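Narrative progress, year one. The postdoctoral researcher (J.K.) led the effort to move from monomer predictions toward full complexes, under supervision of the PI. The following entry was the first complex the group processed end to end, covering 425 residues in total.
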Amino acid sequence: MKVLVIGSGGREHAICWGLSLSKKVSKIFCAPGNAGIGEIAENVDIGSTDIENLIVFVKRNNIDFTIVGPEQPLSLGIVDEFRNNNLLVFGPTKHASQLEASKEFSKLFMKRNNIPTASFNSFTSYNEAESFLKDSDLPIVIKADGLASGKGVRVCFNREEAFEFLKDVMLDKVFSSSGEKVVIESFLEGEEASFFVFSDGENILSLDSSQDHKRLLNDDMGPNTGGMGAYSPAPIIDEETRKNIINEIITPVFEGFKREGLEYTGILYVGLMIKDKRPSVVEFNCRFGDPETQPLLYRIDSDIFDLFYMTAIGKINDYKLKWKPKTSVSIVLASKGYPKTPITGGEIKDLNNINLSDSEFIFHAGTKLEDGKVLISGGRVLNVTALGDSLQSAIELAYRCVEKIDTTNFHYRSDIGKKGLLKNS
Ligand code: AMP
Ligand code: GLY
C-alpha cells in the first residue's frame, strides 16, 4: 500500500513512524513533512490545506490511502473532497469537524445530549458579551468560536483580564473571523487528561489514556501552548474513572451522533477535566492530539497501519489493538521564544549522530533539512520519547535522552510526567 500522511508535526512523524513498521506499507509520502519524516517517507512540497493539489498528487501517484493529521484541512472539507473523488481517506467530514471548528456547535451538541460539560452562553454582540461578563462569576472562560491554533481560549481570573481578552477577540479581531462569535463558559475545576476514540462510522475503539502538559513552564505555570510533553497511560484515569468516561461521555456522544445523523469517522479527541473520578468535557477535537500521539503510538504493539486503515474501511471491530505493557513519555523541546515569537533558523548539531536504544525515539516537529543540516523551523521542534517499565523509568530515560541533544536553542519543561508519579505514590 502507498500511504500519504498530511501534516508536518511530531504527530505526523509518529504516524509515519508507525506506518513504517508495517509490512503492508510499501511507500509513505508526507505533505509537507519535516526533516525527521524525510528519513522514513518522501516529503512532498504541498501545503496541508492545498486540497486540490493533494488530490492531483494522490491520483498521479496511485496512492491507496491518505491520513489527515491536522484540523485545518479537515474543517475545510478535505475528507468530503477526497470521497467525491473516490479516494480512501482517514478523518471526519467537514460537517463532523465542526465539533472542533466551532465551540458553539460542540457545546450545543453536548447540551442536547446531556454530556457533562461547563455551562455556557454564546454571543455575536460585543456589548451583550461585555454586559454578561460584568455580572459573571470568576474565574470565567472565554473562547473564540472558531479555530485559533490553540490560542483562542483564555481562563480569566479577574474582570479586567476578561474585558481585555473579549476586546482582543471581538473588536480587535486578533483571531480574525474565528472570533466573530464567542463562547463564555463556567470554570471547571480538576485535572485535565486526553482520551482518544477511533470510529469507523458504526463502531468505536477507545485508546489508552494520556495526559498533555499545556502550560509552558514547570508546575503548570506560564501561558498555554500547543503542549509541552505528554505521557501514556495517565494514572488519573484509573479503572473507575475510565468506566465513567465511557458511560457518561463516550457512549452518549456516539449515540448522539447516530441519533442526529452525524457520521463520524476518524479519531475523536475528548479533552477532559476530571475531579473526584468524575469527567467533564473541556473540548472535542476531530484529530489526534499533539504531543499525545507520540507516546500513545510508541506504546502500540499491533499494526499501526491497520488501526487507521481498518477504521477507514469500516472494519474497526476486526482490529486487535495491543499495547506494550509499558509507560511512555514524550518531552517537547521548543525553540527559544516559543510560544510568542519562536526563534527559528538555528542548526541542531549532531542530531543524527546520537545513539538511541530501542526504547528511545526523537520525533521531529518544527525541523527542516537544508544543505545536509537539520534546522529549527517552528515553535515545537523535537519530541524526545522513551518507553519504560514504569512511569519513573520512562521519565528518567527520556530526560537522559534529552541530555544527548544540543539544547542551546531550546527550552523545555523538566517535570513532564511528574503529576502521574504523584498519583502513583
Ligand atoms: P480548549 O481549546 O477549549 O481545550 O481550551 C484550552 C485550555 O483552556 C484547556 O486545555 C483548559 O486548560 C482551559 N479550559 C478550557 N475550558 C475550560 C473550562 N471550562 N474550565 C477550566 N479550564 C478550561
Ligand atoms: N495537545 C493538544 C492538542 O493537540 O490540541
